[in-house]
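[job 4417] fold queue: 2 targets
>>> target A
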Amino acid sequence: MTWRVMRAASRLRYRRPMLLTSPTSHAAQPVGALLRQWRQRRRMSQLDLATEAEISTRHLSCVETGRAEPSRAMLLRLADQLEVPLRERNVLLTAAGFAPLYRERPLADPALAGARQALDLVLRGHEPYPALLVDRHWNLVAHNRAVPPLLAGIEPEFLAHPCNVLRLSLHPRGFGPRIGNLAQWRSHLLLRLRQQVTASGDATLQALLEELQAMPLPPGTPPDEHPLPDGGVIVPLQYVTPAGTLNLISTTTVFGTPVDITLSELALETFFPADEATAAALRQSFDAALAQLPV
């Protein structure tokens, strides 16, 4: 379902997330080597991890070197302390000879009906302001009805499935020329993406980061600047429209304690008006879009 069809949609629909595997999900590696990789990625010493997991440093060392095999309970405890994503916890369990624990189901699965309803409530409840649902690689999964009016004039190739919202945001033929503070917003997004790459070791995110870093800025755009202006804590998005500039701030929401891989990898990106003029413009745009929908 493309963005062009979504504009005429009367209800929210979900796309099936792409099931991609990162190089950390290489079950051929022994479980000890995988644990060591995650510990080093989290910048923890063996003493730090052993203390947090309440095991001896000697035993942890033996597990990492393959001289001892962890129990299922110990492996899950170590993964919890290392904040290993659910997808990669299954990899650890498989490498240790145990069955995977966490299921991965499409959002259309009846078992996730409650989660879909909650997502629908958040997306619809945020109207008339835009809100997106993205997967772990920043591919669009769903959005509310306030989003399509902001996409007028975007080339269809950038909106076709899978639509990557970071690529769309920064590309010179996407949103890039429409962002008034592009250098600042670009720095902000790249910083977030670097943090995700560091935390996850995901090869797809690393490739996306390299692609976005190499993406040229439109002519006349000032060089990158620090993402937080004047020591602030919020990075604004200045979206230029024919009717004027919209000043937006965004928040990210994730599921707190998911037990399903699909849910654990979803994030809600919600945008709020930073001033009353932007709030009024978004309400007007939303009302106009609704008026065009079939009854």
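>>> target B
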Amino acid sequence: MSTIAPATATPRTSAPNRLGLGFSRIGYETKVYFRSFDTLFFTFLFPFIMLAIFAAAFSAAGNIGTEPDGSGGISVGAYYLPGMLAAGMLLSGVQNLAVDIAMEKSDGTLKRLGGTPLSPISYFIGKIGQVFVTGVLQAALLLLFARFALGVALPTEPEKWLTFAWVFVFGVITSALLGIALSALPRTGKSATAVVIPIVLILQFISGVYLQFYMLPEWMQNVASLFPLKWMAQGMRGVFLPESFATLEPSGAWDFGLVALNLGIWLVIGLVLSRVTFRWIRKDS
């Protein structure tokens, strides 16, 4: 005797349909992102604000990395630009998605989506695509802001921009996946910001975003090395800072191979955790 499926069962979608649904959601997710002032301020605009504050507050102290005779070095804006680019990736991915998805769980949005043909893969594509689109726009505007508002000289070598491209893509995708995974931690939507923002803030302070990394205690540098933001910031420093600044890194080099390795490891960790922990509704609901 055959069994008739309940009328409420959600039909499975094929792989092409899952991809199509996912890509179609990127535009929707991006529109929602730009309509939220809080999200826009604390993820998209925040690196611009912090870079402007650092440049205005510390420029009077002179260039960073000057020789004993006072020559050389780079401006404060030029030094902090790589860190703010890395922070932008983290904020757009981890903070934005962790809070956003936790809120969608809390208000029932995910429960409603779970009753549609939309698969988790399609949902992930929409979220990651939104982070990538807004991340590219944010990075481009941040570079333009640094160049024309702060007078920062940008690299002219093609290999530097190639390095920027792969560090950026690695960093954005890794941050997005970790944001999806971290969204499972807050128990309610209201507690999401209280749970997520301190984690993101601490990582920024110990990873060379707000503080000069070479001046941090060795134990703090070692702790930061366990997390992806440190490697994103180091990769960006290798692109935008003069080669002489490589001696200030813990190993005395930019170590792009280690940057790629660590970001690759965290990308896999984020992919596994996001798929294992993601639920349309909380288990305790």
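[job 4417] complete. Note on B: Confidence is low (pLDDT under 50) at residues 1-11.
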